[in-house]
Amino acid sequence: MKDLIIVGAGPAGMSAAIYAVRSGLDTQVIEKFMPGGQVLNTADVENYPGFENPISGVDLVTAMDKQVRRLGAEIATADIVSVKRDDASDKIVCTDSSGETYEARAVIVATGSRYKHLGVPGESEHVGRGVSYCATCDAAFFRDKVTAVVGGGNTALDEALFLSRFASKVHIIHRRDKFRASQILVDRVKEHPKIEPVLNSIVKEIKGDKKVTNVKLADTIDGKERDLELDGVFIFVGYLPITEMLPDSVKNEWKEAVTDINMATSIPGIYAAGDIRAQSRKQIVTATSDGATAAMAAYEYITHEEL
């Protein structure tokens, strides 16, 4: 049995591992895919402290991963589908998709989030054929093509700017009359010659045969519909927390994990950190802060000491 299991190896999970190992806890990190999480899809990170110039998401999480391994954290690959407390033994039991169990005195769940879909006709049929949720991954396939980004937050504008390095045109389709992103990104988008905002508009349908050829838009003010011809649609309309493994009793109506200021859920020994947490700002720096806080709280819980 481990002192601490950390489920997920994104920024929150790796930060938790750093603090846990340095506190002397026997720690195991369990990750479904590969360390990094959503940050792997970020082209340039320029709001993480300590870097004078932008750093790629891959380089940032690679450095975190190397730091975790240097400190001696054990990293395993498994898909954890259940995290429960055994009240009889005071242990937290994690079960993976194959039925194997992992036991610890405390668990930090930092599984992050997945991309939210629009849910419109033609979306699922065209995934990989013009519909994408990652410009960093797929932009090169749309060199000199006309594309659209759907969304109005930081991620959408960031991805639109990256996509503009390849595409001949990038429309940004947003349901409101102004973007929700930080002002520096809004200014860059407005000044970019390849990017055209399409405001007060929603996507009603994604059309095409073997590949995307156009989208049907509806004006949010007068309801008028029109077709916009393009070759690719990149969707960034938010995230859904990956919390299926957690008991319903610790989640709110949006399936986010509810925690206190120490990242503790209502179940003793179970903590949550990063994008899965209610009221998370969904930033790399806040995720790492959550992870550090959760690890210190778990240490206090495990050792029954107060720092």
| Structural class category | alpha/beta
Radius of gyration: 21 Å
**Biggest sheet descriptor:** 7 strands, mixed
Beginning-to-end CA distance, first to last residue: 24 Å
* Total number of helices: 6
Give the % helix: 10-25%
Topology as a string of helices (H) and strands (E): EHEHEEEEEEHEHEHEEEEEEEH
- Give the DSSP E fraction (strand runs of 2 or more residues): 25-35%
Question: What is the number of E strands?
Answer: 17
Average pLDDT level = 95
Summed up:
With 307 residues, the protein is α/β, with parallel strands linked by helices.
Throw out a few tags for this protein.
17 strands, 6 helices, five-stranded parallel β-sheet, alpha/beta, 23% helix
Describe how the helices and strands are arranged.
Layout: E1 2-7, H1 11-22, E2 27-31, H2 57-71, E3 74-77, E4 80-86, E5 91-96, E6 101-109, E7 113-115, E8 131-132, H3 135-138, E9 146-150, H4 154-163, E10 169-173, H5 183-191, E11 195-198, E12 201-208, E13 212-219, E14 225-229, E15 232-235, E16 239-241, E17 270-272, H6 284-303
Parallel strand pairs: 1-2, 1-6, 2-3, 6-17, 8-15, 9-10, 9-15, 10-11
Antiparallel strand pairs: 4-5, 5-6, 7-16, 12-13, 13-14
Helix pairs in contact: 1-2, 1-6, 4-5
Write up what this structure looks like.
- It is a single chain.
- The chain has helices at residues 11-22, 57-71, 135-138, 154-163, 183-191, 284-303; strands spanning 2-7, 27-31, 74-77, 80-86, 91-96, 101-109, 113-115, 131-132, 146-150, 169-173, 195-198, 201-208, 212-219, 225-229, 232-235, 239-241, 270-272.
- 23% of the residues lie in helices and 28% in strands.
- It has 6 helices and 17 strands.
- Strands 1, 2, 3, 4, 5, 6 and 17 form a 7-stranded mixed beta sheet that branches. Strands 8-15-9-10-11 form a 5-stranded parallel beta sheet. Strands 12-13-14 form a 3-stranded antiparallel beta sheet, with no helix packed on it.
- The chain is elongated and about 60 Å long.
